[in-house]
Design goal:
Belongs to the class I-like SAM-binding methyltransferase superfamily. NNMT/PNMT/TEMT family. GO terms for molecular function: phenylethanolamine N-methyltransferase activity. By secondary structure, this protein is α/β, with parallel strands linked by helices. The chain is built from 9 helices and 11 strands. The chain is globular. The structure holds S-adenosylmethionine.
């Protein structure tokens, strides 16, 4: 330690750095977001706008692996291809209105439990799970995952399997020690969470606490897979402008260790200029595979 720590701050102007240095002896910087401000921000979250911003071109362009969505899908496909991460239940934390993150996972678990804090997101997800008209079209994502998994599986079979295994869509709050309200027994064999914890935590300490809360959902020896934003301080979802804890790769390593997980793999992706569309100020994406140690 050099006597300095960094603290997150609110959405900066263009070109400004996203983290502010704080030196001992100076007044502690005020946190720009609080749990209450975050909750209020999420009241304005528009699932359709969020899907447009992140899951249509240019970000969801399958013509090249250089784009961010194919990168995320490949991380997940390669990790699940090892066959090591499997079991009865996988919980996806902060699923939002999206299912792309479950496409490789669904082959390895009897039940996928989706979760989100917002009813509007759980409803959007339910529309897709029930195959209702007007649901978001995830078929390009499913086709791409079938292609990279390379088993020649018809994409409609994967779509059907995910719908069958998506058993429950539950409310969650990662800021509670028991995020689902009541303990899930038996505990999950694996957890997945994409772009949730840093987007719902007022600061890095809360991010670490939320990660530790997720640990309560997982059996000893269980796996956790995290996708998340690097260097992001805000994102847009329609009228909502949500503050994000700007994380560096080292923060992700430190947070996983502090929350009691053993890191297995960490990959990073730098957001190319063409994908910096103004819907957020993300610098890159991380993918982490970690494991909860066996007890005793
Ligand atoms: C950036 S979105 C991520 C959505 C999706 N997983 C993805 O990969 O695009 C963050 C999600 O966290 C959810 N969320 C907000 N507050 C939360 C909380 N306290 N606990 C769990 N999830 C929360 C939001 O409703 C939203 O769906």
């Amino acid at each position: 330690m050099d006597g300095a720590v960094t603290a997150p701050r609110g959405p900066p102007g263009p070109g400004s750095d996203k983290r502010r240095r704080w030196r001992r002896g100076e007044p502690q910087p005020l946190a720009m977001s609080s749990p209450a401000a975050l909750r209020e921000g999420y009241e304005h979250f528009d699932p359709r706008a969020y899907l447009r911003n992140n899951y249509l071109p240019p970000r969801a362009d399958f013509s090249s692996e250089e784009f961010v969505v194919p990168w995320k899908l490949r991380c997940l496909a390669e990790t699940f291809a090892s066959g090591e991460i499997r079991g009865r239940t996988l919980i996806d934390v902060g699923t939002g209105p999206t299912i792309y993150q479950l496409l490789s996972a669904c082959d390895h678990f009897e039940e996928i439990v989706a979760t989100d804090y917002l009813a509007v997101n759980r409803e959007e997800l339910g529309r897709w799970a029930r195959g209702e008209p007007g649901a978001f079209d995830w078929s390009p994502f499913i086709q791409h995952v079938c292609k990279i998994e390379g088993r020649g599986e018809p994409w409609q079979d994967k779509e059907r399997r995910l719908r069958q295994r998506l058993g429950r869509i539950l409310p969650i709050d990662v800021h509670r020690p028991e995020p689902l309200g009541t303990p899930l027994r038996p505990r999950a064999d694996a957890l997945l969470s994409a772009f949730c914890l840093e987007a719902v935590s007022p600061d890095r300490a809360a991010f670490v606490r939320a990660l530790a809360h997720l640990g309560n959902l997982l059996r000893p020896g269980g796996h956790v897979l995290l996708l998340g934003a690097l260097g992001e301080s805000f994102y847009l979802a329609g009228p909502a402008r949500l503050p994000v804890v700007p994380l560096q790769e080292s923060d992700v390593r430190e947070a996983l260790a502090a929350a009691g997980f053993a890191l297995r793999e960490l990959r990073t992706y730098a957001m190319p200029p063409a994908l910096r569309t103004g819907v957020d100020d993300v610098d890159g994406v991380f993918f982490a595979h970690a494991q909860k140690p066996l007890e005793g």
